[in-house]
Each structure stands twice: as structure tokens, then as C-alpha cells.
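Input sequence (378 aa), recorded before submission:
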Amino acid sequence: MFRSIKIFINKLKTNYKIFKNILLIRKIKPKYIFFSENKNYQKFSYLLIETIIKKYPKEVYYVSSELDDTFENSDVINFFIGKGFLLNIFFLLVRANNMFLTTTDLDNNAIKKTNNVDKYIYYFHGAVSTTKVYTATAFDNYDIILCNGDYQINEIRKRESIKKIKKKKLIKTGYFYFDYLTQRINKQIVPNEILIAPSWNYNQKNFINENIKEIIQSVLNQGYIVNFRPHPETFKRSITTINNIKQRFSNESFFLDDKPENINSMENARCLITDNSGIAIEFVLLFKKPVLYFEDSDKIHNIDFSDYSELVSMDKKVKEIFGYTFKKENIKDLDVLINKSISEFVNKETEINNFVDENFYNFGSTIKNFNDIMNNEF
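Predicted structure, C-alpha cell format:
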């Protein structure tokens, strides 16, 4: 009982400290706040923050729900606010000029808007389209969205027109994470693994729940090393499933990747097997290696997806132009498809480069472009 009381007292002390920090931020009203759900998302804000602090050192506050998610730069001020009611209080009380988030459905769930924040700004943590894997209302309540390419602007404007909602300011920045990866890729690595990366899906009948063990076993049977990297949401919501898979293959050439950074996983992989994960776009377009898509399950989180039937999503475009598909009956012959995809992908570089230039803004220069935008917008 004494131990329980001690834990309770320590929790009260922690919550009191967090609440004091919330009041401090409210008093200061920072010029820039970046909110992070956890350390898995920091890589998507990295270049943005590094650019801003060059002009405004000590004016960026990095606020996270995870204790060990801190931005390692002395010009950034880190705050831990936890989850649950303290997270709700933070968003109700916060004051800021510019609040940057990569969390969807602002004001529809726990994260509420307040008039004390001048601009709520969304930046993407995926190169996917806005029309399919996000909820219908995912971006409705943002003031500004930093867009990867024309495809996202067309999709967002289409929804605004259909639903008669207020137009947001859409800025042509490009996808910052492309440049983050490009700066860090080690092209000298000789890959020797197969990366299996399931997406996270609301639907219980999906890749990770239905067929993943059979797919992993098929790849292992061919002598490949398997690197299994579930989506961060799967770790939050389906940890029992992940632990079962880990235990099932504990004596094999199988590795569970739970690191926040995914660069090494993509560098070390000869090819990627997924269902609908956005990592497929980065793997094809940046690492220029093949993706095998399992086709027996789909991922549609937008109840209004049919409204966009005339728009081809970026996810589908990459899959149809560069992807290889297989179904349940093909799992036993995966080695044939893996070898075929690797041999055919050797000569795709020019085609991939042209695709990136045609579909994404400012590839290789997102930060230079954003630096110019800051003078006018933020």
C-alpha cells in the first residue's frame, strides 16, 4: 500500500509540474510551437524546425506527449505535457502565434482549437493523398496546410467546394521528409533484407491480422532476413498482436523494428512488402527499390472517398506505375516475385526522377523555399 501511495504522490508532482509548464507557455505566447505525439514523428518536423531556429533562435517550443521525445538543439525549448486530461488542458489554454502539427482532425477529437492561437498549420508525415487513408474531416479545421504537390491542393480544394467549408491557405512547400531522407541516405549499403511494413487500419480484417504470419514464413523459407516494421499506431493499439508475431518467429532470421527512425530499415532492404503503407512511396521514389503490395485488403478511412472518383490518388498512382501486386494464393511463390521485381527495377531511376519532378514541389530545395515563405507567412 505504501508503494501505491508513493506512486500516486509522484504522479501528482509530475502533473503539477506539467500544469505549471502549461501556464508558463500560455504566459509567454511563443512565436512557434511544434506539437509532437511521440518521437516517431520528430523526423517529419526536423528540417522545418532547423530552418526556423536559424532566424528565430529560442523562439521555437517543442511540445510532446512523450517524455523522451525532445529536440536536441539548444535553440529549441522542450516541454513534456503528457497525455489525457493534461493534453486537453494544454490545447485549451495555449497561446501562440503559429502552432505546427502533423496530427489530423484538429478540433474534432481531444485536440481543440482556441482563438488564442493565431494560425494552426498542418505539415504532412506522408506523401499519400488526402482522400483515402485519412478521415473525411482530417484537414477541415486548419488555417494553413503545407502541401507536397498539386495532387493535395486539388484534393483539398475539391472537399472545400463539395462541403462548402472555409478555404484554407494552401502553401506549395513540397514534402520536407523527402529532403530529410535524401540528406541521410547511404547509397553504399548492400541490402540483404526484406522489409515488411504493414499499414495501420481501422478495419480489423487487414494485412497484419489476417495473413502476415504466412507472408513472413514464406519469405524466411527462401533464406531471406525479414525486418518487420509495423506502423507506430499498431504499437499503440495492437501490441498483443505484435508480441505474438515476435514470439512466433523468435528463432528465425527475423527482426522487429520499433525504432523511431526508418532510414536504416529502407537502406538495408532489397525490397518492401506492404499492403497500403505510405512508406511505399518513400521507398520507391527515394530509395528507388521495388515494392510488393498485398492486395487482399484495402485501407479506406474516408467515408466520402467516392466523392473523389475522378482524382487518382498518389498512393494508387505510385502503385500502378511502379508497384508489384500479389494475393493470398501467391504467397507461397513470393520468391519468384521478389527476384523479378529486383531485376526489373535496376533501370527505373530516370523514370522515377521524372515522376518526382512532375508530382512534388521543390524536391531537393524544400528548405530554401520554406525560408523564403517564412518572410511572408510566419
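Checked by second reader. DSSP finds 15 helices and 13 strands in the chain.
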